[in-house]
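Predict the 3D structure for this chain.
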Amino acid sequence: MAYVSIYRKYRPYDFDGIVGQEHIVKTLRNQIKTDTIGHAYLFTGTRGTGKTSIAKIFARAVNCVNNQNGQACGNCEVCKELAKPNNLDIIEIDAASNNGVDEIRELRESVKYPPSVGRYKVYIIDEVHMLSIGAFNALLKTLEEPPSHVIFILATTEVHKLPQTILSRCLQFDFRLVPTASIANRIKYIFDDMNIKYTEDACLAISEAGDGSVRDALSIADMCVSFGEGNVDYNVVLEVLGQSNPNIILDIVECTLNGDLNTSLTLIGNLANYGKSMGVLARDITKMFRNLFIVQNVITPEKVLTLPKEIINRLKEMRSFDTARVLQCVDIMSSVEANMRYSSMPRTLVESSIAKCSDARANIDLTGVITRLKAVEDKIANGLVVNGSTCEKVDKVKRVFNKSSCCGYLIKATRDLKKYALYSELTELNKDNFSMDNGIVYIRPARKNMADILLMPEYLDLITDLLVNEFEGITEVKVIQSDKIVNIDEDITLVKSMFDNDIVKIK
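Done. Predicted structure below.
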Protein backbone atom coordinates (compact mmCIF):
# COMPACT_ATOMS: atom_id res chain seq x y z
CA MET A 1 0.00 0.00 0.00
CA ALA A 2 1.28 3.49 -0.91
CA TYR A 3 2.56 5.65 1.94
CA VAL A 4 0.07 8.21 3.24
CA SER A 5 1.51 11.41 4.67
CA ILE A 6 0.91 12.14 8.35
CA TYR A 7 -1.40 15.11 7.83
CA ARG A 8 -3.65 13.01 5.54
CA LYS A 9 -3.54 9.89 7.67
CA TYR A 10 -4.44 11.79 10.86
CA ARG A 11 -6.96 14.20 9.39
CA PRO A 12 -9.79 14.55 11.98
CA TYR A 13 -12.89 12.50 11.28
CA ASP A 14 -15.07 14.10 13.99
CA PHE A 15 -15.28 17.31 16.00
CA ASP A 16 -13.31 15.83 18.90
CA GLY A 17 -10.21 15.63 16.70
CA ILE A 18 -10.23 19.32 15.78
CA VAL A 19 -7.38 21.33 17.32
CA GLY A 20 -7.61 24.96 18.39
CA GLN A 21 -11.02 25.91 16.95
CA GLU A 22 -13.26 25.25 19.95
CA HIS A 23 -15.36 28.39 19.37
CA ILE A 24 -16.37 27.17 15.91
CA VAL A 25 -16.90 23.54 16.89
CA LYS A 26 -19.19 24.51 19.80
CA THR A 27 -21.32 26.77 17.60
CA LEU A 28 -21.76 24.19 14.85
CA ARG A 29 -22.59 21.39 17.28
CA ASN A 30 -25.19 23.54 18.99
CA GLN A 31 -26.79 24.33 15.64
CA ILE A 32 -27.06 20.64 14.87
CA LYS A 33 -28.48 19.79 18.32
CA THR A 34 -31.11 22.55 18.11
CA ASP A 35 -31.79 22.02 14.39
CA THR A 36 -31.00 25.65 13.55
CA ILE A 37 -28.77 24.90 10.59
CA GLY A 38 -28.00 27.72 8.17
CA HIS A 39 -28.08 27.47 4.40
CA ALA A 40 -24.68 29.09 3.68
CA TYR A 41 -21.46 29.17 5.70
CA LEU A 42 -18.17 30.97 5.08
CA PHE A 43 -15.01 29.54 6.67
CA THR A 44 -12.08 31.98 6.62
CA GLY A 45 -8.56 31.74 7.99
CA THR A 46 -4.97 30.88 7.17
CA ARG A 47 -3.94 27.58 5.61
CA GLY A 48 -3.89 24.43 7.66
CA THR A 49 -6.24 25.55 10.43
CA GLY A 50 -9.03 23.04 9.74
CA LYS A 51 -11.47 24.76 7.36
CA THR A 52 -11.97 21.85 4.95
CA SER A 53 -11.80 19.24 7.72
CA ILE A 54 -14.56 20.93 9.73
CA ALA A 55 -16.62 21.40 6.56
CA LYS A 56 -16.55 17.64 5.88
CA ILE A 57 -17.26 16.76 9.52
CA PHE A 58 -20.18 19.19 9.60
CA ALA A 59 -21.54 17.81 6.32
CA ARG A 60 -21.62 14.28 7.76
CA ALA A 61 -23.04 15.43 11.11
CA VAL A 62 -26.04 17.29 9.61
CA ASN A 63 -26.99 14.15 7.66
CA CYS A 64 -26.57 11.63 10.49
CA VAL A 65 -29.92 10.20 11.61
CA ASN A 66 -28.51 9.30 15.01
CA ASN A 67 -26.16 12.18 15.83
CA GLN A 68 -24.78 12.22 19.34
CA ASN A 69 -24.29 15.59 21.00
CA GLY A 70 -24.17 17.29 17.60
CA GLN A 71 -21.73 14.80 16.12
CA ALA A 72 -22.14 12.04 13.54
CA CYS A 73 -22.39 8.59 15.07
CA GLY A 74 -20.37 6.93 12.30
CA ASN A 75 -22.37 3.71 12.56
CA CYS A 76 -25.69 4.39 10.84
CA GLU A 77 -26.25 3.61 7.16
CA VAL A 78 -26.11 7.29 6.18
CA CYS A 79 -22.75 7.78 7.93
CA LYS A 80 -21.34 4.69 6.24
CA GLU A 81 -22.49 5.86 2.83
CA LEU A 82 -21.16 9.39 3.32
CA ALA A 83 -17.79 7.98 4.42
CA LYS A 84 -17.29 6.62 0.91
CA PRO A 85 -15.26 8.95 -1.36
CA ASN A 86 -17.74 8.52 -4.25
CA ASN A 87 -20.86 9.60 -2.32
CA LEU A 88 -23.15 12.08 -4.11
CA ASP A 89 -24.33 14.15 -1.14
CA ILE A 90 -21.05 15.84 -0.17
CA ILE A 91 -19.62 17.61 -3.21
CA GLU A 92 -16.22 19.29 -3.05
CA ILE A 93 -15.49 21.92 -5.67
CA ASP A 94 -12.07 23.47 -6.23
CA ALA A 95 -12.80 27.08 -7.19
CA ALA A 96 -9.21 27.56 -8.33
CA SER A 97 -9.80 25.29 -11.34
CA ASN A 98 -13.59 25.68 -11.62
CA ASN A 99 -13.90 29.43 -11.44
CA GLY A 100 -15.94 30.30 -14.53
CA VAL A 101 -19.58 31.15 -15.11
CA ASP A 102 -20.21 27.81 -16.87
CA GLU A 103 -19.17 25.77 -13.83
CA ILE A 104 -21.46 27.79 -11.55
CA ARG A 105 -24.34 27.33 -13.99
CA GLU A 106 -23.83 23.57 -13.81
CA LEU A 107 -23.86 23.85 -10.00
CA ARG A 108 -27.15 25.77 -10.14
CA GLU A 109 -28.68 22.95 -12.16
CA SER A 110 -27.37 20.18 -9.88
CA VAL A 111 -28.76 21.74 -6.68
CA LYS A 112 -32.29 21.04 -7.93
CA TYR A 113 -31.81 17.31 -7.38
CA PRO A 114 -32.44 15.99 -3.84
CA PRO A 115 -29.77 14.13 -1.81
CA SER A 116 -29.41 10.42 -2.46
CA VAL A 117 -29.03 9.08 1.11
CA GLY A 118 -29.01 11.91 3.63
CA ARG A 119 -31.14 14.87 4.58
CA TYR A 120 -28.93 17.51 2.97
CA LYS A 121 -26.76 17.86 -0.08
CA VAL A 122 -23.67 19.83 1.00
CA TYR A 123 -21.51 21.79 -1.47
CA ILE A 124 -18.01 22.62 -0.19
CA ILE A 125 -16.41 25.27 -2.42
CA ASP A 126 -12.73 25.55 -1.54
CA GLU A 127 -10.63 28.65 -2.33
CA VAL A 128 -13.85 30.45 -3.21
CA HIS A 129 -12.03 33.77 -3.65
CA MET A 130 -10.69 32.41 -6.97
CA LEU A 131 -14.11 32.62 -8.62
CA SER A 132 -14.46 35.24 -11.33
CA ILE A 133 -16.79 38.23 -10.95
CA GLY A 134 -19.21 36.63 -13.39
CA ALA A 135 -19.19 33.38 -11.42
CA PHE A 136 -19.89 35.25 -8.16
CA ASN A 137 -22.83 37.02 -9.79
CA ALA A 138 -24.17 33.71 -11.11
CA LEU A 139 -23.93 32.20 -7.61
CA LEU A 140 -25.65 35.04 -5.75
CA LYS A 141 -29.31 34.09 -6.13
CA THR A 142 -28.74 30.39 -5.51
CA LEU A 143 -26.60 31.16 -2.46
CA GLU A 144 -29.29 33.40 -0.98
CA GLU A 145 -32.28 31.13 -1.60
CA PRO A 146 -31.10 27.57 -2.21
CA PRO A 147 -33.48 24.59 -2.08
CA SER A 148 -34.27 23.46 1.47
CA HIS A 149 -32.10 20.34 1.01
CA VAL A 150 -28.90 22.26 0.08
CA ILE A 151 -26.15 23.71 2.30
CA PHE A 152 -23.24 25.73 0.93
CA ILE A 153 -19.90 25.86 2.75
CA LEU A 154 -17.43 28.35 1.25
CA ALA A 155 -13.79 28.21 2.37
CA THR A 156 -11.12 30.80 1.68
CA THR A 157 -7.76 32.06 2.91
CA GLU A 158 -8.32 35.54 1.41
CA VAL A 159 -11.70 36.75 2.59
CA HIS A 160 -10.94 40.34 1.55
CA LYS A 161 -11.25 39.29 -2.10
CA LEU A 162 -14.89 38.24 -1.72
CA PRO A 163 -17.65 40.66 -2.77
CA GLN A 164 -19.78 42.08 0.03
CA THR A 165 -22.83 40.59 -1.67
CA ILE A 166 -21.40 37.11 -0.94
CA LEU A 167 -20.32 37.93 2.61
CA SER A 168 -23.76 39.24 3.56
CA ARG A 169 -25.42 35.97 2.54
CA CYS A 170 -23.25 33.68 4.70
CA LEU A 171 -22.66 32.87 8.35
CA GLN A 172 -18.98 33.74 8.68
CA PHE A 173 -16.61 31.76 10.92
CA ASP A 174 -13.06 33.07 11.39
CA PHE A 175 -10.53 30.30 12.02
CA ARG A 176 -7.77 31.28 14.43
CA LEU A 177 -4.11 30.40 14.25
CA VAL A 178 -3.72 27.26 16.34
CA PRO A 179 -1.69 27.77 19.58
CA THR A 180 1.77 26.26 19.60
CA ALA A 181 1.02 24.16 22.69
CA SER A 182 -2.08 22.64 21.05
CA ILE A 183 -0.12 21.69 17.94
CA ALA A 184 2.64 20.18 20.09
CA ASN A 185 0.10 18.03 21.94
CA ARG A 186 -1.31 16.81 18.64
CA ILE A 187 2.17 15.91 17.39
CA LYS A 188 2.89 13.98 20.57
CA TYR A 189 -0.35 12.03 20.18
CA ILE A 190 0.55 11.13 16.59
CA PHE A 191 4.14 10.16 17.45
CA ASP A 192 2.88 7.97 20.29
CA ASP A 193 0.41 6.30 17.94
CA MET A 194 3.18 5.69 15.39
CA ASN A 195 5.67 4.48 18.04
CA ILE A 196 8.07 7.30 17.18
CA LYS A 197 10.64 8.33 19.80
CA TYR A 198 10.70 12.08 20.41
CA THR A 199 11.71 14.80 22.86
CA GLU A 200 9.60 17.61 24.30
CA ASP A 201 11.84 20.29 22.79
CA ALA A 202 11.55 18.68 19.34
CA CYS A 203 7.74 18.76 19.40
CA LEU A 204 7.74 22.39 20.51
CA ALA A 205 10.20 23.33 17.76
CA ILE A 206 8.07 21.60 15.10
CA SER A 207 4.89 23.28 16.32
CA GLU A 208 6.63 26.66 16.43
CA ALA A 209 7.78 26.22 12.84
CA GLY A 210 4.19 25.46 11.82
CA ASP A 211 3.36 29.10 12.61
CA GLY A 212 -0.21 28.35 13.67
CA SER A 213 -0.91 25.84 10.87
CA VAL A 214 -1.50 22.25 11.94
CA ARG A 215 -0.98 20.94 8.41
CA ASP A 216 2.37 22.74 8.02
CA ALA A 217 3.53 21.43 11.38
CA LEU A 218 2.54 17.84 10.51
CA SER A 219 4.36 18.11 7.17
CA ILE A 220 7.51 19.16 9.03
CA ALA A 221 6.96 16.31 11.50
CA ASP A 222 6.74 13.91 8.54
CA MET A 223 10.14 15.08 7.27
CA CYS A 224 11.66 14.85 10.75
CA VAL A 225 10.48 11.23 11.11
CA SER A 226 12.16 10.33 7.82
CA PHE A 227 15.37 12.25 8.56
CA GLY A 228 15.69 10.93 12.11
CA GLU A 229 14.76 7.36 11.10
CA GLY A 230 12.05 7.16 13.73
CA ASN A 231 13.91 9.14 16.42
CA VAL A 232 13.00 12.84 16.49
CA ASP A 233 15.07 15.10 18.77
CA TYR A 234 15.80 18.82 18.81
CA ASN A 235 18.90 18.57 16.60
CA VAL A 236 16.95 16.60 13.98
CA VAL A 237 14.35 19.36 13.79
CA LEU A 238 17.08 22.02 13.43
CA GLU A 239 18.65 20.07 10.56
CA VAL A 240 15.35 19.61 8.75
CA LEU A 241 14.40 23.27 9.12
CA GLY A 242 17.86 24.48 8.19
CA GLN A 243 18.08 26.47 11.41
CA SER A 244 21.25 27.13 13.34
CA ASN A 245 22.06 25.79 16.78
CA PRO A 246 20.40 28.27 19.18
CA ASN A 247 23.52 28.30 21.38
CA ILE A 248 25.57 29.62 18.45
CA ILE A 249 22.91 32.24 17.62
CA LEU A 250 22.86 33.26 21.29
CA ASP A 251 26.67 33.60 21.19
CA ILE A 252 26.32 35.96 18.22
CA VAL A 253 23.69 38.03 20.02
CA GLU A 254 25.70 38.22 23.26
CA CYS A 255 28.95 39.17 21.53
CA THR A 256 27.12 41.79 19.45
CA LEU A 257 25.59 43.44 22.52
CA ASN A 258 29.00 43.35 24.25
CA GLY A 259 30.54 45.16 21.27
CA ASP A 260 32.72 42.15 20.37
CA LEU A 261 32.24 42.50 16.61
CA ASN A 262 35.25 40.30 15.87
CA THR A 263 33.70 37.20 17.47
CA SER A 264 30.24 37.91 16.01
CA LEU A 265 31.56 38.16 12.44
CA THR A 266 33.75 35.08 12.94
CA LEU A 267 30.74 33.00 14.04
CA ILE A 268 28.71 34.26 11.09
CA GLY A 269 31.58 33.41 8.76
CA ASN A 270 31.77 29.87 10.13
CA LEU A 271 28.04 29.35 9.54
CA ALA A 272 28.32 30.79 6.02
CA ASN A 273 31.21 28.47 5.18
CA TYR A 274 29.10 25.57 6.48
CA GLY A 275 26.51 26.46 3.84
CA LYS A 276 23.96 28.16 6.07
CA SER A 277 21.37 30.27 4.25
CA MET A 278 21.88 33.93 5.08
CA GLY A 279 18.13 34.51 4.97
CA VAL A 280 17.51 31.81 7.57
CA LEU A 281 20.45 33.05 9.66
CA ALA A 282 19.12 36.63 9.67
CA ARG A 283 15.72 35.34 10.74
CA ASP A 284 17.28 33.24 13.52
CA ILE A 285 19.26 36.21 14.87
CA THR A 286 16.19 38.45 14.75
CA LYS A 287 14.16 35.88 16.69
CA MET A 288 16.90 35.57 19.33
CA PHE A 289 17.01 39.34 19.87
CA ARG A 290 13.22 39.19 20.18
CA ASN A 291 13.50 36.29 22.66
CA LEU A 292 15.87 38.37 24.79
CA PHE A 293 13.44 41.30 24.70
CA ILE A 294 10.64 38.97 25.88
CA VAL A 295 12.78 37.62 28.73
CA GLN A 296 13.61 41.17 29.83
CA ASN A 297 9.97 42.23 29.98
CA VAL A 298 8.00 39.11 30.95
CA ILE A 299 8.06 37.73 34.48
CA THR A 300 7.57 34.10 33.35
CA PRO A 301 9.05 33.91 29.81
CA GLU A 302 8.74 30.10 29.86
CA LYS A 303 5.02 30.54 29.18
CA VAL A 304 5.70 32.67 26.10
CA LEU A 305 8.81 31.15 24.51
CA THR A 306 9.03 27.64 23.08
CA LEU A 307 12.75 27.17 23.66
CA PRO A 308 14.85 24.61 25.53
CA LYS A 309 15.28 25.43 29.21
CA GLU A 310 19.03 25.90 28.86
CA ILE A 311 18.48 28.64 26.24
CA ILE A 312 15.91 30.43 28.40
CA ASN A 313 18.31 30.27 31.35
CA ARG A 314 21.07 31.81 29.23
CA LEU A 315 18.70 34.56 28.12
CA LYS A 316 17.83 35.29 31.74
CA GLU A 317 21.53 35.82 32.46
CA MET A 318 21.53 38.53 29.75
CA ARG A 319 18.69 40.58 31.25
CA SER A 320 21.12 43.32 32.28
CA PHE A 321 21.54 44.57 28.70
CA ASP A 322 19.74 47.83 27.91
CA THR A 323 16.20 46.99 26.78
CA ALA A 324 16.02 49.95 24.41
CA ARG A 325 19.18 48.78 22.67
CA VAL A 326 17.86 45.21 22.33
CA LEU A 327 14.67 46.58 20.77
CA GLN A 328 16.79 48.65 18.39
CA CYS A 329 18.64 45.47 17.33
CA VAL A 330 15.31 43.76 16.65
CA ASP A 331 14.35 46.67 14.41
CA ILE A 332 17.66 46.59 12.52
CA MET A 333 17.65 42.83 11.93
CA SER A 334 13.96 42.76 10.98
CA SER A 335 14.72 44.81 7.87
CA VAL A 336 17.46 42.44 6.67
CA GLU A 337 15.17 39.72 5.31
CA ALA A 338 13.07 42.24 3.38
CA ASN A 339 16.18 43.86 1.89
CA MET A 340 17.70 40.54 0.86
CA ARG A 341 15.34 40.10 -2.09
CA TYR A 342 16.90 43.21 -3.64
CA SER A 343 20.52 42.40 -2.73
CA SER A 344 23.04 40.21 -4.53
CA MET A 345 25.28 40.10 -1.43
CA PRO A 346 23.18 38.67 1.42
CA ARG A 347 26.17 37.86 3.61
CA THR A 348 27.41 41.45 3.44
CA LEU A 349 23.93 42.65 4.36
CA VAL A 350 23.85 40.43 7.48
CA GLU A 351 27.37 41.45 8.54
CA SER A 352 26.71 45.17 8.13
CA SER A 353 23.50 44.87 10.14
CA ILE A 354 25.35 43.09 12.94
CA ALA A 355 27.91 45.93 12.89
CA LYS A 356 25.06 48.44 13.35
CA CYS A 357 23.73 46.42 16.27
CA SER A 358 27.19 46.20 17.82
CA ASP A 359 28.02 49.92 17.68
CA ALA A 360 25.38 52.65 17.69
CA ARG A 361 27.87 54.99 15.99
CA ALA A 362 27.51 52.87 12.84
CA ASN A 363 23.85 53.93 12.51
CA ILE A 364 23.24 57.00 10.39
CA ASP A 365 19.47 56.99 10.96
CA LEU A 366 17.59 58.92 13.63
CA THR A 367 17.75 55.99 16.06
CA GLY A 368 21.54 55.97 15.92
CA VAL A 369 21.73 59.73 16.43
CA ILE A 370 19.43 59.53 19.47
CA THR A 371 21.53 56.71 20.92
CA ARG A 372 24.75 58.69 20.57
CA LEU A 373 23.15 61.84 21.98
CA LYS A 374 21.90 59.92 25.02
CA ALA A 375 25.41 58.59 25.62
CA VAL A 376 26.75 62.16 25.65
CA GLU A 377 23.99 63.28 28.03
CA ASP A 378 24.82 60.39 30.38
CA LYS A 379 28.49 61.39 30.43
CA ILE A 380 27.65 65.00 31.21
CA ALA A 381 25.23 63.91 33.94
CA ASN A 382 28.05 61.86 35.48
CA GLY A 383 30.35 64.89 35.59
CA LEU A 384 32.24 64.22 32.35
CA VAL A 385 32.99 67.12 30.01
CA VAL A 386 33.19 66.08 26.36
CA ASN A 387 36.22 67.77 24.79
CA GLY A 388 36.67 66.64 21.20
CA SER A 389 37.11 62.87 21.26
CA THR A 390 38.07 62.74 24.94
CA CYS A 391 36.14 63.08 28.18
CA GLU A 392 37.49 64.76 31.24
CA LYS A 393 36.14 64.23 34.74
CA VAL A 394 35.16 67.48 36.42
CA ASP A 395 33.54 68.18 39.72
CA LYS A 396 29.90 69.15 39.52
CA VAL A 397 29.23 72.75 40.49
CA LYS A 398 26.74 72.69 43.35
CA ARG A 399 24.19 75.37 44.09
CA VAL A 400 23.97 77.50 47.19
CA PHE A 401 21.14 76.37 49.44
CA ASN A 402 18.00 78.38 49.87
CA LYS A 403 14.56 77.24 50.99
CA SER A 404 12.69 77.96 47.78
CA SER A 405 15.15 76.26 45.41
CA CYS A 406 15.45 73.26 47.73
CA CYS A 407 11.69 72.69 47.76
CA GLY A 408 11.30 73.20 44.01
CA TYR A 409 14.26 70.96 43.16
CA LEU A 410 12.96 68.03 45.24
CA ILE A 411 9.52 68.22 43.61
CA LYS A 412 10.99 68.33 40.07
CA ALA A 413 13.62 65.63 40.71
CA THR A 414 11.14 63.11 42.13
CA ARG A 415 8.77 63.75 39.23
CA ASP A 416 11.58 63.18 36.69
CA LEU A 417 12.55 59.99 38.50
CA LYS A 418 8.90 58.86 38.27
CA LYS A 419 8.69 58.48 42.06
CA TYR A 420 5.09 59.60 41.91
CA ALA A 421 4.08 58.54 45.42
CA LEU A 422 6.86 60.66 46.95
CA TYR A 423 6.26 63.45 44.43
CA SER A 424 2.60 63.76 45.46
CA GLU A 425 3.60 64.20 49.11
CA LEU A 426 6.31 66.78 48.37
CA THR A 427 3.92 68.96 46.34
CA GLU A 428 2.14 69.78 49.60
CA LEU A 429 5.32 71.36 51.02
CA ASN A 430 6.52 74.93 50.58
CA LYS A 431 9.72 76.83 51.37
CA ASP A 432 8.62 77.44 54.96
CA ASN A 433 8.85 73.70 55.62
CA PHE A 434 12.63 73.74 54.97
CA SER A 435 15.57 75.07 56.97
CA MET A 436 19.32 74.42 57.23
CA ASP A 437 21.68 74.52 60.17
CA ASN A 438 25.32 73.31 60.32
CA GLY A 439 24.99 71.29 57.11
CA ILE A 440 21.76 69.60 58.18
CA VAL A 441 18.56 70.25 56.23
CA TYR A 442 15.45 70.07 58.36
CA ILE A 443 12.10 69.26 56.77
CA ARG A 444 9.08 69.99 58.94
CA PRO A 445 5.88 68.64 57.32
CA ALA A 446 2.60 70.07 58.59
CA ARG A 447 1.12 66.64 59.09
CA LYS A 448 2.43 63.74 61.15
CA ASN A 449 1.40 61.13 58.57
CA MET A 450 3.38 62.98 55.88
CA ALA A 451 6.44 62.91 58.13
CA ASP A 452 5.97 59.17 58.58
CA ILE A 453 6.05 58.74 54.79
CA LEU A 454 9.16 60.92 54.33
CA LEU A 455 10.92 58.99 57.11
CA MET A 456 10.57 55.71 55.23
CA PRO A 457 14.19 54.59 54.60
CA GLU A 458 13.75 54.35 50.82
CA TYR A 459 12.39 57.92 50.55
CA LEU A 460 14.69 59.51 53.14
CA ASP A 461 17.79 58.04 51.45
CA LEU A 462 16.62 59.32 48.08
CA ILE A 463 15.93 62.84 49.40
CA THR A 464 19.33 62.89 51.11
CA ASP A 465 21.20 61.81 47.96
CA LEU A 466 19.38 64.37 45.83
CA LEU A 467 20.06 67.32 48.16
CA VAL A 468 23.68 66.37 48.97
CA ASN A 469 24.53 66.08 45.27
CA GLU A 470 22.74 69.30 44.31
CA PHE A 471 23.48 71.83 47.06
CA GLU A 472 26.72 72.94 48.63
CA GLY A 473 27.45 72.21 52.28
CA ILE A 474 24.66 69.70 52.94
CA THR A 475 25.72 66.59 54.86
CA GLU A 476 22.48 65.23 56.25
CA VAL A 477 18.69 65.50 56.00
CA LYS A 478 16.33 65.17 58.97
CA VAL A 479 12.54 65.03 58.96
CA ILE A 480 10.95 66.58 62.07
CA GLN A 481 7.72 64.90 63.11
CA SER A 482 4.82 67.16 63.98
CA ASP A 483 2.43 66.44 66.81
CA LYS A 484 -0.46 67.71 64.72
CA ILE A 485 -2.55 64.86 63.38
CA VAL A 486 -5.33 65.58 60.96
CA ASN A 487 -8.54 64.17 62.44
CA ILE A 488 -11.64 65.00 60.45
CA ASP A 489 -13.97 63.90 63.27
CA GLU A 490 -12.49 66.51 65.61
CA ASP A 491 -12.87 69.18 62.92
CA ILE A 492 -16.53 68.31 62.46
CA THR A 493 -17.12 68.52 66.22
CA LEU A 494 -15.45 71.93 66.31
CA VAL A 495 -17.63 73.27 63.47
CA LYS A 496 -20.79 71.98 65.17
CA SER A 497 -19.87 73.70 68.44
CA MET A 498 -19.38 76.99 66.60
CA PHE A 499 -22.87 76.98 65.08
CA ASP A 500 -24.61 75.11 67.91
CA ASN A 501 -28.41 75.23 67.39
CA ASP A 502 -28.21 77.07 64.06
CA ILE A 503 -27.45 73.83 62.22
CA VAL A 504 -30.31 72.80 59.96
CA LYS A 505 -30.57 69.42 58.24
CA ILE A 506 -31.42 69.88 54.57
CA LYS A 507 -33.01 66.98 52.71
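The longest helix spans residues 278-297.
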